[in-house]
């Protein structure tokens, strides 16, 4: 069937091009270029890592068997014996003997078919326009088949159209199917080396089938855009979807990452599987995690050690974590027991207020620094192939900060403090981030920033030390008196037990900060965020999502038969008045 290009807009991203219908029939969000670029960078690192692990496994097996690799045996046979072509002998006895010897050597070591590493199969569970699948197929070297699924006929039609539009390479590597992704994943257990979940909203309904569909050592990439739920606006909804109760705090975006990781681990445990996070990021309006999935009933027992409940004081920024489980050595084995608690009294020891309890959340490391360094190096070496290079490079740089050995984002410190929030509790001016970090490091504790916010402070210093630092700061920068019951007044009423040194520490700034490299970039354009679900009619209510111009163009497109705006019916006038008022406000702001 011929395609009328007048009805479509050609969108190019990376090396892929797609046709988007002007009536918003299939979902597409330009802002997700950051997500797609980060996924391609991780996928490239995974393919390289997978190859290294396979070669290391073969070497280990060859050493343990005491045999040379098959290729060496076959090469020796070809030199010393009569050559054999296409598995057939040449009719001579020595040829038969050499063939049997070669088979014996192959059988003693490993079959070539088993030794051969097949290209990774990728499943994009919710493909929509198919742009992500097309970019994987065209840009990632060494990738195998990419299966794109969707249960919306319009999306599958658009995906198939875009596959053909991108030429022979895409048609040979990408296949699109109209099916429920959950059913497809359940009926294909451990079939895919990479599973990509990027739904519109919560991924919770796909997690159970996704963890079953990933091959051992495979990569699961998962996005969650329901940030209001994950960040504590609807705690009961979050608990019903993810099995964790969130609390409102400045660390809410990192908490969202850890809730998602805990939920994936919970689903994996039901099938004697567990996850190992390699990268977890919060970007724009969503969180994105990259985890490897393994099968091991014994390793799965460590899950309670990776999860924690957390207590947040309602009066100040103090929070504490309590592990769900613990392990004790027993002879040559390990004994697992419930965690010991509570770790906090009924009232906060700093301000006297009560605690809220949330969780459980993932309290083990969210990143693998070796992976992060590898991904970052790969991105920098292929700068021209990433449309969102600046953004993903800044995020990876903030996570790694590899040039400062003691300054990279602390992996074993869940959540973080906010410097402005600490100052807000005491009603004082805020110290600079470098000064506060110096005070913590001079007190012999570790400290780092967070990739989530430039104001985040990760540290292993106890809250007593944090508040002592702030008390000493306030002594040099007095504040107005507050009511005695105010949390800040209660905290400041206690004398500091620590002599704080605010002198500049050599490690208070990372090399990226010293060089003034960009780490937290502004949005590249207005209305850079979530977009309207495909198929929904655009109205004046969507101004905050797509802007006045896009809304006006759409509304005017539906009124082409009218000559002037004065000819509209009385029912439409209130809507147009609201629209004009919003335009006036926007133009004056």
From TrEMBL:
Alphabetized UniProt keyword annotations: Metal-binding, Methyltransferase, RNA-binding, S-adenosyl-L-methionine, Transferase, tRNA processing, tRNA-binding, Zinc
Q: Which GO terms describe its molecular function?
A: metal ion binding; tRNA (guanine(26)-N2)-dimethyltransferase activity; tRNA binding
- EC number, as in UniProt: 2.1.1.216
Where does the record place Acidic residues bias?
563-574
Entry function: Dimethylates a single guanine residue at position 26 of most tRNAs using S-adenosyl-L-methionine as donor of the methyl groups.
Q: Which PANTHER family match?
A: N 2 ,N 2 -DIMETHYLGUANOSINE TRNA METHYLTRANSFERASE (PTHR10631), TRNA (GUANINE(26)-N(2))-DIMETHYLTRANSFERASE 1 (PTHR10631:SF12)
Family that this chain belongs to: Belongs to the class I-like SAM-binding methyltransferase superfamily. Trm1 family.
This protein's name: tRNA (guanine(26)-N(2))-dimethyltransferase
